Structure formats: structure tokens, C-alpha cells
């Protein structure tokens, strides 16, 4: 006996929903579908510039330049991390804030940490909880930091503050718009060292076109876009990548040791005096 057409439709619907659930789609935001993963403008990587965020150029589009200018102005007005968190929450110039994210995700950790970690952007767990690196990748990151006695001793943020739809990589424009807030966070925390977690963070912060597998483990200098004090910055493999490629953990361990050694060296008495 053939199934009633209604049952067939129900089964097809169930199967389609199961497909989307398995693909990671966990929320229905609106009645009609919107392709939120589509990036309207072509993604351009900037030319290699050593240190400093790229100036908003005509090629980045007037909207991006205006949003960067607005972000700079708002970031420059705040004097505390709490005020910065508030300014980020109130800022609607980043397109990501209008693409389905539940909330802005700024930072967690010690406000006067010696080490500041900058990841790529919040994922689903972070979007839900409002704190960076709290999902599976974040838990691995915490275990890695604990291995060198740095758990709860770091300040953690991201290059963008809203979850990119479908967990895609943030675009250069989105990172540029959020950069003034990231720079202000660095200026307020005044860490001694930066750790750039994952390729999208390392490439953006260092203005490099090199891949993370090349960049990782190499200390570079990060310089604010307006000039001033430079910070030693260590690119490292993203814990989400390590969860997928556990054999790469050996490289991450080398980088953590390099971080621990560098930090200890900063505290060692100088031989010169
Ligand atoms: N991945 C990131 O880069 N940042 C987070 O906060 C979570 C996952």
C-alpha cells in the first residue's frame, strides 16, 4: 500500500530537517530563508604591511571606511575594559551584528594579564554564552594554557565580536571594522605578549598572506595602526584545528613552550646591569 501524500511530505520534511540539523543549523531566525553565508562583496586580502591595521581605503568601500572611522572614534572614548565592552555592544557598524548573532562576545580573563590571546571570532557556544572560547575548542585551549600554568592568567578576545554565520571565517572588512576595539583592548590591558590563535587572526593582525602552518611558532612584532609601542606576537594553531588534527598537537606544544620561555625571560634579571 502506498503512503498517503501527507505522510510522504512529513517524512521528506523530517529528513530535510535532520539533514540541516546534522549540518550544524540549530536556529530558525526568520520565516523565509536568507542566505546568510553569502558574502556580498568579493573578499580582498590587503597587501602585506608589517605591523598596524590597514588604513581604510577607497577599495574597502565607503561603508567600511565610515564604520572603521566610527569604531575608532568610539574606541578612543573609553578608558576601561567595562566601558569598551559596553561600546562594542552598542556599536552596530559591523555587518556581523546584523547577521543572526545573538549577542556581542567581547572578552574573558584577567584584565591586567601578561598574555593576551586573540582568536578569530565567536562560534555557536560563544554566541550563546557571551564569552569567547567556551566551547570544545575553548576547553582545549584552557587545558593547553593550564599545561604551562597560564590558565586564568590570560586575557582572551577575538578579531570580531559577533558570530559569523555558519561559523565562516570573518572577512577582512569585518575584521577591519572591529580592529579599533581590539587595539583599544590591547592598549587597556597592556599585555607583555600577544598570542594570535588561528590563521584568520594571525594573518589579519600581522597583515601577512602566509598561512598559519608557516606563521605558527615564529615571534613577530605587532604594531598599533597609529604607531607606538610594539608587542611581541606569537601565531599559534587554532584549538579547533587541533581537535580535528590531533597529531598537530606536538607543534602546538612547541609553541606553548616558546610562549612560556619568552614570558619567563621577560621576568629574568638583566645580565647587563
Ligand atoms: N574560535 C575562536 O576563534 N574564537 C572563539 O571565541 C571560539 C572559537
Describe this structure in words.
This protein has helices at 5-22, 62-77, 81-90, 124-129, 136-147, 172-189, 199-206, 212-215, 239-244, 249-267; strands at residues 108-109, 115-119, 154-158, 193-197, 220-222, 231-236. With 273 residues, it is α/β, with parallel strands linked by helices. It has a single domain (64-264), classed as Uracil-DNA Glycosylase, subunit E (3-Layer(aba) Sandwich). It has a six-stranded mixed sheet with strand order 1-3-2-4-6-5, sandwiched between helices. Helix 2 packs parallel to helix 6. The chain is globular. Uracil binds at residues 119-123, 126, 132-133, 137-138, 158, 197-198, 240.
Topology:
Blueprint: H1 5-22, H2 62-77, H3 81-90, E1 108-109, E2 115-119, H4 124-129, H5 136-147, E3 154-158, H6 172-189, E4 193-197, H7 199-206, H8 212-215, E5 220-222, E6 231-236, H9 239-244, H10 249-267
Parallel strand pairs: 2-3, 2-4, 4-6
Antiparallel strand pairs: 1-3, 5-6
Helix pairs in contact: 2-6
State the CATH superfamily name.
Answer: Uracil-DNA glycosylase-like domain
Number of strand elements: 6
| CATH architectural designation | 3-Layer(aba) Sandwich
Instruction: Quote the distance from N terminus to C terminus.
Output: 93 Å
List the strand order in the largest sheet.
1-3-2-4-6-5
Mean pLDDT: 87
Q: Number of folding domains?
A: 1
User: Which ligands are bound?
Assistant: uracil
Helix content: 40-55%
* Radius of gyration from the alpha-carbon trace, in angstroms: 21 Å
Q: How many H/I helices?
A: 10
CATH fold field value = Uracil-DNA Glycosylase, subunit E
Amino acid at each position: 500500500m502506498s503512503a498517503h501524500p501527507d505522510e510522504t511530505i512529513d517524512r521528506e520534511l523530517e529528513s530535510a530537517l535532520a539533514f540541516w540539523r546534522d549540518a550544524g543549523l540549530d536556529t530558525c531566525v526568520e520565516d523565509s530563508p536568507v542566505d546568510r553565508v553569502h558574502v556580498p562583496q568579493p573578499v580582498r586580502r590587503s597587501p602585506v604591511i608589517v605591523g598596524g591595521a590597514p588604513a581604510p581605503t577607497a577599495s574597502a568601500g565607503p561603508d567600511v571606511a565610515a564604520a572603521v572611522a566610527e569604531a575608532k572614534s568610539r574606541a578612543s572614548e573609553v578608558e576601561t575594559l567595562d566601558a569598551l565592552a559596553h561600546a562594542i555592544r552598542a556599536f552596530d557598524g559591523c555587518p556581523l551584528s546584523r547577521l543572526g548573532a545573538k549577542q556581542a562576545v567581547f572578552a574573558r580573563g584577567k584584565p591586567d594579564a601578561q598574555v593576551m590571546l586573540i582568536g578569530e571570532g565567536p562560534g555557536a557556544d560563544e554566541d550563546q554564552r557571551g564569552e569567547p572560547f567556551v566551547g570544545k575548542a575553548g576547553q582545549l585551549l584552557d587545558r593547553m594554557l593550564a599545561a604551562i600554568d597560564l590558565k586564568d592568567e590570560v586575557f582572551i578576545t577575538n578579531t570580531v565580536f559577533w558570530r559569523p554565520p555558519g561559523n565562516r571565517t570573518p572577512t577582512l572588512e569585518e575584521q577591519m571594522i572591529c580592529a579599533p576595539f581590539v587595539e583599544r583592548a590591547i592598549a587597556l590591558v597592556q599585555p607583555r605578549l600577544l598570542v594570535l590563535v588561528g590563521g584568520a587572526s594571525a594573518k589579519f593582525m600581522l597583515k601577512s598572506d602566509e598561512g598559519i602552518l608557516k606563521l605558527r611558532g615564529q615571534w613577530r612584532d605587532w604594531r598599533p595602526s597609529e604607531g607606538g609601542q610594539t608587542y611581541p606576537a606569537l601565531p599559534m594553531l587554532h584549538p579547533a584545528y587541533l581537535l580535528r588534527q590531533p597529531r598537530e598537537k606536538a607543534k602546538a606544544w612547541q609553541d606553548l613552550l616558546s610562549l612560556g620561555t619568552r614570558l619567563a625571560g621577560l621576568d629574568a634579571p638583566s645580565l647587563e646591569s
